[in-house]
Amino acid sequence: MKVKICGITRLEDAQMCEDSGADALGFVHFPGRKRSIPLNEIASIGSTTGPMLTRVLVCSPHDASDALDMVDRSSTDAIQVYSLDRESLNEIRDNGVKVIRAVRPMRSEALRFADAADALLFEEGVPGTGTSHDYSRIPISCCSRAIIAGGLNATNLDEAKRLGPYALDVSSGVESPTGRKDPVLVSEFIRRCRS
Predict the structure, then answer these.
(1) Is the pLDDT of residue 127 over 90?
(2) For residue 120, what are the CA distances in angstroms to 171, 185, 188?
(3) Most buried among 59, 115, 145, 159, by the most CB within 10 A?
(4) Is 91 left (phi over 0), alpha (psi -120 to 50) or beta?
(5) How far from 126 is each of 31, 134, 143, 195, CA to CA, in Å?
(6) Which 8-state DSSP code applies to residue 181?
(7) For residue 85, how far is the Cα from the chain centroid?
(8) Mean pLDDT of the 91-96 span
(9) For residues 193 and 170, is the Cβ–Cβ distance under 8 A?
(10) The predicted structure's pLDDT at residue 126
(11) Domain count within the chain
């Protein structure tokens, strides 16, 4: 199972998460969000990571052109979006950028985007708030690569893991204090995802 550590804001956190075995790091560029950082800062932090780690830009672009510009300016490998229609997602993918489309845990929404994205990220409520939800409601079978997010931590990751997703995505559940990743919590989360 893959593990994405989201909400990276510091160079030392990026390096620690990579050293702990994370498969991907999420960098938020979303005005008004606690962990949002400028695109040039994302590029700077990401430039220190190794070639086997995927750097994901988490954002809400206006259109495909905006998305591609942000990916270019942030020097990321993939984009996770909370906006955009199927046509825009396909345009981004046609330009060689991997796309993760965030959706609510509803079958109809998952089916709408399943073949227009490289993976679907299932999350309930306001993104980035650490709100857990009933993971058993996630329609995992609607896509080939399902990522579970939203309030994951050491106490509930087994519930999400039992569904057999492609990946788990954690942010606040491995932080202490807010915005700073805790090495012990990160290592334990990754270890338990893979055990």
Answers:
(1) no
(2) 17, 25, 25
(3) 59
(4) alpha
(5) 14, 15, 22, 30
(6) B
(7) 19
(8) 98
(9) no
(10) 65
(11) 1
What pLDDT was estimated at residue 55? 98
Identify the residue whose tokens are 């857990």. 132
Q: What whole-number distance in Å separates Cα of residue 142 and Cα of residue 79? A: 20
Which residues have CB under 8 Å from 59's CB, separation 6+?
Answer: 28, 29, 30, 67, 70, 79, 80, 81, 82
Structure tokens belonging to residue 111: 């089916």
User: Minimal CA–CA distance to 13: which of 171, 192, 193?
Assistant: 171
Q: Is the pLDDT of residue 105 over 80?
A: yes
Report the pLDDT averaged over residues 77-98.
97
Amino acid at site 87: E
CATH code (residue 44): 3.20.20.70
- Give the mean pLDDT of 8-25: 98
Span 46-57, average pLDDT: 97
- Full domain range(s) for residue 103: 2-194
Beta carbons within 8 Å of 153's beta carbon, 6+ residues apart: 132, 170, 172, 173, 174, 189
String of DSSP letters for 28-58: E--TT-TT---HHHHHHHHTTS-TTSEEEEE
- What's the number of CA atoms in the CB half-sphere (13 Å) around residue 145? 16
Q: How many residues does the chain have?
A: 195
